[in-house]
UniProtKB/TrEMBL annotation:
Organism of provenance: Peribacillus psychrosaccharolyticus
GO terms, biological process: DNA integration; DNA recombination
Protein name as catalogued: Uncharacterized protein
Classification of source organism: Bacteria, Bacillati, Bacillota, Bacilli, Bacillales
Gene Ontology molecular function: DNA binding
InterPro entries in alphabetical order: Integrase-like_cat_sf (IPR013762)
Length: 49
């Protein structure tokens, strides 16, 4: 299986954003890490689509 997702997008992907019947994935956020290494969820912007 290939998704072409960036690592941060895949890590932030909740199960409800997967539609296995249609074979679709909706990416709405990404994981980023602050200077201390703590993860934070970053919403995707309209420009990033």
């Amino acid at each position: 299986m290939s998704t072409e997702l960036r690592e941060g997008e895949g890590l932030a992907l909740p199960w409800f954003n997967l539609d296995l019947e249609k074979g679709e994935v909706t990416v709405t956020r990404s994981v980023s890490y602050d200077e201390k290494g703590n993860p934070e969820l970053i919403p995707k912007t309209e420009k990033s689509y």
